[in-house]
Automatic annotation (TrEMBL):
InterPro entries: NAD(P)-bd_dom_sf (IPR036291), SDR_fam (IPR002347). It comes from the Eukaryota. The chain crosses the membrane at residues 18-41. Pfam families: adh_short. It comes from Dictyostelium purpureum (Slime mold). SUPFAM superfamilies: NAD(P)-binding Rossmann-fold domains (SSF51735). This is Uncharacterized protein. GO terms for molecular function: oxidoreductase activity.
Length: 315
């Protein structure tokens, strides 16, 4: 039985969370007033890049990576697309070539730091990379089911975090020396939810924070950095959820058009779809100590698969 004294004590212990709610409300009012001014500053300061001619895309054998590759495929453009499935990569190459692009493929493990560095620097020397899209990623559900919780976490971080860094870092010095170039890092709107998949959500949280901070670091040197934050996209990753339907799910082609438009405007954060963005943003402003209750309510609508749970030690 919950007593009145318990409620009061709980409220007092969570006073910081309620203070955060007040600040969120007041802060929103302030931002409504100064938002247009901030936007004008962005318009004045943000560098606009020409349409890229040489593009590198990791994770281009399925899903959003395919959509991005096709979106940038046209006569005169050079594409380097990477993945782990040769047959699917060859299919993507064929489709891109039909649109006039000069396409090279690379079967490579993006977690291999030296192999990625060698590949990217050789391609940059050959064509001069205008845009690199660090898109490759996996979720917990895409990894072998036989993996335990710990191994699943380490394997995912190798791909989603170190793989992203291995894609981005080798080209930064060359882009800074040229004073131009763009870096796009695919994150996810799930990083604002903190609900089911700790490794995936955590890895995407790193991608967002790293990308937006790197943007500030490289802006003065003329290099653009954008974070891509999709909601649900029809792909092998969404298929792994095994849900009959996913809310506001978009096709890779639809997502790629939003991404290209955002990169053309040098936007810091390219998120879609709007309903998913609004829902996840709402989740992000729920104070941490109150989020336990919200997550409990959410379990009635979505639960994690058994093999994603931490194993109980046998007695």
């Amino acid at each position: 039985m919950i007593l009145f004294e318990d409620v009061v004590a709980s409220f007092i212990s969570n006073i910081n969370d309620y203070a955060m709610l007040v600040v969120s409300f007041l802060g929103t009012l302030v931002l409504f007033l100064i938002g247009p001014i901030l936007n004008l500053i962005n318009i004045r300061r943000n560098k606009i890049f020409p349409d890229p001619k040489t593009i590198v895309i990791t994770g281009a054998s399925s899903g959003l990576g395919v959509g991005i590759a096709l979106e940038y495929s046209k006569e005169g453009n050079n594409l380097l697309i990477t993945g782990r499935n040769k047959e699917r990569l060859e299919q993507v190459k064929t489709e891109c070539a039909k649109k006039g692009a000069n396409v090279e493929i690379a079967l490579i493990d993006i977690a291999d730091r030296e192999a990625m560095k060698s590949l990217l620097l050789k391609y940059d020397k050959k064509y001069t990379v205008d845009l690199v899209v660090a898109n490759a990623a996996v979720s917990e559900l895409m990894l072998p089911e036989k993996l335990n919780f710990v191994d699943r976490t380490y394997d995912l971080v190798d791909i989603n975090v170190y793989g992203m860094l291995n894609t981005v870092l080798p080209l930064i010095d060359n882009m800074e020396a040229r004073g131009t170039g763009q870096i796009a890092i695919t994150s996810s709107l799930t990083e604002m939810i903190n609900f089911v998949f700790p490794a995936y959500t955590g890895s995407k949280g790193f991608c967002t924070s790293y990308g937006l901070t790197l943007r500030n670091r490289l802006a003065e040197s003329g290099v653009g950095v954008s974070v891509i934050a999709p909601g649900f996209v029809y792909s092998r990753m969404s298929d792994s959820l095994k849900q009959e339907s996913l809310p506001f799910c978009v096709t890779p082609e639809q997502g790629a058009k939003v991404i290209r438009d955002g990169l053309a405007r040098n936007k810091a954060y390219i998120a879609f779809s709007l309903p998913t963005l609004l829902y996840t943003y709402f989740n992000s402003i729920i104070p941490p100590n109150l989020k336990d209750g919200w997550n409990y309510i959410s379990t009635f609508f979505f639960s994690s698969p058994d093999f994603n749970r931490v194993e109980k030690k046998k007695q």
